[in-house]
Design goal:
Double Stranded RNA Binding Domain, globular, alpha+beta, three-stranded antiparallel β-sheet, 245 residues, 2 domains
Amino acid sequence: MSVFVSVSELKERADALVAQVASGGEHVVVTDGVRRLAILTPHGGPLIDRPIEKAELGFDPAAGHVGTPGGREFLGRELRESGLPIADSEGLLDQVYSAVLSLCEDKEQIFREDIQALAEEVLADAPGRLKLLALTIQTTTGMPATAEVTLQLESGPAMRRQQGDGPLDAAFKAIEKLTGISPKVESFAAFSATPGRDAMAEAVVELSLDEQLVTGRGASTDSVAAGVQAYLHALNFLTASAVRT
């Protein structure tokens, strides 16, 4: 179990909260009301590596519970805190919850990574998901970069060419024009996931739109393609949670 506190509450109760964690008590999650900012947990591993109690997910066959409103609400909160909000409007959360309950039957321990993976699988099959069909980048020293992006939209394939202050900026602008959605890029990071000249690049991006904040991840042998995949990954969560509501 975890205790959720604001930054101001952490300042006021720091000594007591740290002592609680150190003694093996409840973990402390510091939030800004939208996302997790920090986690206080005993030395030996981050909270994300610890299993979730199945009862919190509404799975407790001994008590006659295989799915509860409280478990569904807990799942929705976990997804929001992970930057993966799933809207109720099209039954997506119900689909994820059903998959989680099935996993509870088959798997001894459930981790947050399991829940996130199931949510991504459900969203991947959701109608209207944005898919990258083609990406062409042109860069010349001293000139703006040009990106040509082709996406699979609900109406069919569509292409847009845009210039920007670098290949990613150009690609993001092209995607904005294609989708009509202009989120704010809160953070972006790319790194090498494997060694060697042909290393696999991974990218992580945080996008915000109105009051929604989501995280997207992408991987490719090309760092720009990884960034575009991460952007689309996050944008799909925004369209599922904000645009369709």
